[in-house]
Task: inverse folding
């Protein structure tokens, strides 16, 4: 799915190469693709349609910033508009739980992750807000569900209401309220029974529980992977029981999170939290920026674009772009690329911003890879003469020795640097031929997991290899193209050439 989207956006970028103001035609062409991208990310059709219409009006006629392409600009406008829709007025993490004991009702379909989320949230309230929480399972159909909550409670150190066989959901809710009041709890959470589909019996039961508990918050738990159906679920639950917020689970999977946009647009209910795994600490406050990036399938590329813009002078970018297009790439260019990387937070910083690269970044950390490598390479270049920097072909044995000694390093380090330089120069040449649009497309492909470019995040062996490849030195030929295009197009163009996990 990611590949499709990146190709599609690549196509948009290819077409949008004119500078100046964004023409209606440019915007229309780009948005047509964005609409398909939204649908692929499981955003419902009417929502995608309305959204694109609103963005079209906003984007047409906007002046194009010199340092970005019109394609990038449209994507940024789309991205910002997504955030506008996704972000509610209030802080998503702030639940109304004053006036103890405050009841929180948890609702949702079976298997949506309701019980797990109940426990995760209880843990969060206990740890972060120092609340005394009582949890109760109202799932009278499945005794196993009640036991599951009790086990989770023990695990996280949160009390659960003792199980009494034969009670109805309403009776349990009453008992929970009583116990919470007598026991001096700040919050009590009611984990209702789920059904595979919405049915009347379920809704009647939840309504009856609601009437007894009068919840301060009614949180709808929805599986983030369900996509389109999420809207129906949200609409139904909201109409029947009244929902105050949504929790999207399984956002650690490869779902694109379009459900978030649809639910927010259709029901107007705020997304409060996202579940990011099975563990008890895998619950985070909803962040509109992250989901917007994810829906567009771009990780935090927009942030990367912005950061690159901040740290790189536009003229310098323009100058480098011209050099790259001519296939020119000497040691001075390499040095400024390495310095640029350091400014952007080093390898770790850049990786952290890439979709799905968080894990790899952690492994790099563990493997002891840090920015020393970058600094060493800069030191080597500093130890070269002006002539050598302009023309690295001059570097024969004796010069290499002198350069290594000057930086206090081994000759092998110089060789690694030269190898990396050669690979990057080759890539620049190739990219130069492709033109701006082509470069971007190439970059996107690389970043979004074009075949072989990134390790499979679920394959520990591939991840380990990738970390090793990185550790053995960016110099050992990371596939050659560290932040290749950073200069020219404000995107780490060369990342496609990183060759993560790929033996060269
Ligand atoms: N990967 C991942 N798994 C999750 C997440 N939230 C819940 N799960 C898993 O999803 C499965 C179902 O979760 P439950 O909490 O039992 O679902 P439920 O909605 O309470 O189901 P019923 O009790 O049958 O109604 C469990 O194996 C959870 O560990 C999440 O955010 N990410």
Result:
């Amino acid at each position: 799915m990611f590949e499709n989207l990146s190709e599609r956006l690549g196509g948009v970028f290819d077409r949008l190469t004119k500078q100046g103001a964004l023409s209606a035609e440019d915007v229309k062409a780009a948005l047509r693709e964005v609409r398909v991208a939204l649908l692929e990310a499981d955003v419902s059709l009417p929502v995608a349609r309305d959204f694109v219409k609103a963005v079209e009006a906003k984007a047409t006629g906007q002046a194009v910033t010199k340092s970005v392409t019109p394609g990038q600009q449209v994507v940024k406008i789309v991205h910002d508009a997504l955030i506008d829709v996704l972000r509610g007025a209030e802080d998503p993490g702030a639940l109304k739980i004053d006036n103890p004991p405050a009841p929180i009702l948890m609702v949702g379909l079976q298997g949506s992750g309701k019980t797990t989320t109940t426990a995760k949230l209880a843990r969060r309230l206990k740890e972060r807000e120092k609340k005394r929480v009582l949890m109760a399972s109202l799932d009278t159909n499945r005794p196993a569900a009640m036991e599951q909550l009790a086990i989770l409670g023990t695990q996280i150190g949160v009390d659960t209401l003792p199980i009494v066989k034969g009670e109805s959901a309403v009776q349990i809710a009453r008992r929970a309220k009583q116990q919470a009041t007598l026991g001096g709890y700040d919050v009590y959470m009611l984990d209702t029974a789920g059904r595979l589909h919405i049915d009347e019996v379920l809704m009647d039961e939840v309504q009856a529980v609601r009437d007894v508990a009068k919840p301060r918050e009614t949180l709808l738990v929805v599986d983030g992977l369900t996509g389109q159906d999420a809207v129906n679920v949200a609409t139904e639950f909201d109409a029947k029981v009244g929902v105050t917020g949504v929790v999207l689970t399984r956002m650690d999977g490869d779902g694109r999170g379009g459900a978030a946009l649809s639910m927010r647009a259709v029901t107007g209910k705020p997304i409060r939290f996202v579940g990011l795994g099975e563990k008890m600490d895998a619950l985070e406050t909803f962040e509109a920026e992250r989901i917007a990036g994810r829906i567009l399938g771009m990780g935090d590329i927009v942030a990367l674009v912005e950061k690159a813009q901040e740290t790189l002078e536009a003229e310098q970018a323009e100058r480098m772009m011209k050099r790259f297009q001519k296939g020119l790439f000497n040691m001075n260019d390499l040095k400024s690329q390495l310095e640029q990387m350091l400014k952007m937070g080093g390898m770790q910083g850049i990786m952290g911003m890439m979709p799905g690269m968080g894990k790899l970044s952690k492994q790099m950390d563990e493997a002891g890879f840090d920015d020393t490598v970058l600094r060493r390479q800069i030191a080597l270049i500093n130890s070269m003469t002006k002539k050598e920097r302009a023309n690295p072909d001059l570097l024969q044995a004796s010069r290499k020795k002198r350069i290594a000694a000057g930086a206090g390093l081994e000759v092998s380090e110089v060789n690694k640097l030269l190898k990396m330089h050669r690979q990057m120069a080759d890539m620049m040449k190739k990219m130069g031929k492709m033109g701006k649009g082509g470069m971007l497309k190439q970059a996107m492909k690389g970043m979004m997991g074009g075949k072989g470019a990134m390790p499979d995040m679920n394959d520990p062996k591939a991840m380990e290899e990738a970390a090793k490849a990185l550790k053995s030195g960016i110099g050992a030929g990371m596939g050659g193209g560290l932040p290749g295009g950073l200069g020219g197009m404000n995107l780490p163009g060369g990342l496609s050439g990183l060759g993560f996990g790929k033996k060269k």
Q: What stands out?
A: The first strand starts at residue 102 and ends at 108. The chain has three domains: 2-86, 102-295, 301-498. Residues 1-7, 436-458, 469-504 have pLDDT under 50 and may be disordered. The pocket of guanosine-5'-triphosphate is lined by residues 108, 110-116, 139, 145, 194, 249-250, 252, 275-278, 282 (CB under 6 Å).
